[in-house]
Amino acid sequence: MADPEIKSYAPHHESQSAAVTESRPAKAVLMIVTFAFLGIFLLLPLIVVFNEAFARGLSAYTEALTSPDTRSAIHLTLLVAAISVPLNIVFGISAAWAIAKFEFKGKAFLTTLIDLPFSVSPVISGLVYVLLFGAQGLFGAWLKAHGIVILFAVPGIVLATIFVTFPFVARELIPLMQEQGNGDEEAALSLGANGWQAFWYVTLPNVKWGLLYGVLLCNARAMGEFGAVSVVSGHIRGLTNTMPLHVEILYNEYNAAAAFAVASLLAGLALVTLVLKTLLEMRYGAEIAATRGH
Amino acid sequence: MTTAPAKAGWRFRQPSVIPGFGLTLGFSLAYLTLIILIPLSGLIWRSAALGWTDFWAIATDRRTINALEISFGTAFIAAAVNVVFGTIVAWVLVRYNFPGRRIVDAMVDLPFALPTAVAGIALTTLYAPNGWLGSLLAPLGIKVAYTPLGIVIALIFIGLPFVVRTVQPIMEEIDKEVEEVAATLGANRFQTIARVLLPGLAPAIVTGFALAFARGVGEYGSVIFIAGNLPYKSEIAPLLIVIRLEEYNYAAATAIAAIMLALSFVMLLVINLVQTWSRKRYG
Fold it and tell me: Do B119 and A130 touch (CB under 8 A)?
């Protein structure tokens, strides 16, 4: 494989003497454990998804995907991602600008708060909106009097999705922009650029791959979120069912083939995300923040 | 306040020629407050409004206690399993060169990218009595699907990348000379790994454990399909919240959520202290 990453590792491996590497049998055991563990826990579930999706043949597969309920679920999932991801992009850029470009009191605390949604159960992320906007909620009576529907409708699903995907872009951009410093922007400003120009022509090109990386992860989670969305959606078929919720309904109706057909689309999305993410890491590793994995 | 002497020089922010501080910080704070802080404080406010007797009655309800025990217990076991296997996986990915290493490395992130509901139905199908793995385990008398063991399996899947991705970068930074020195001084390979390398990796391993554990405690989508969801036996706390909500029992849902948040917070605090300690000890 023409893999630059492996090439850069090569000297590392060549310099290994017997004293600083494991014996051959030990190595073999560790490799077997790794492959067995990853095979059972990661590869098999993935294979099962596609195997079950096509278990009843191609026509059953396409039929499941073109049913009106499935199509409206796909529609809703795309709509929700199309609203929540751009909002979190704007927030992520704005928070990264404030945190990375300036020194101010309480910065560390603000950074911690941004990560908060990651340590909250998805179910609780949905619950908090039910407590605010539900019939017994804080604003429930007021919303009802004014005829505004948030819960068990698209706005609630969008809010819950924004909540769970909130940190992705910001936490990718903050360390990256901190690492790059203010030098480029200061040069642009001293050459007569205004703030917007400095951002648009200097900062944005500097962080574009890191931004794309964050957006990729944000989008994958937005389209795949289950727990939070499940609490606020009300599971109304054809209206408030996103793809993951539709998978659940079909599965609970013992319509496994259709459930896995829809699931295979989501698994496909996950695979595309992983491929793009790996390509970004290989090509632009240095231009993506040092923080990996998430 | 003891900041009096510094008061003359106290500044909210350092001066800078870069514009846009007010706009970006203002927008970020407003967005954070509206989306995260107000809803979360609503939860705390609602549970405080419950009153102590009601709160205590919900907290000490057998079903609540069992659900919390199951959530925290299975998450703990799964995170412990991931610490062992995740560290081995990270080691193999960092140290050994084999064809397809890049693909295996990318695969580790699958649980981050795969929607939890998809993972849930796939694992359930795999471990059901007639599934590929379930049918192998059934003759041995091991039941996975619809038991707490199934919850552990789902949480191992969910938590694996947290351990690998936390430990891997630290392993990559290990200075090989340290190992050479240990070997020169007469340590065998096992001693070098156990007494020289692992202590240095301990803070990362503890962090990976904490992240996997925290995620496992709150996990919902991948668990509910495989768990069987029998009250008192295989019902996780997030599911009990959903059940209480569906019963319009907002009080109980709120109280259980508040307990979960508080427990996770305490756990993370303890793990943070352990981390600081191990950094000081082995840093």
Answer: no
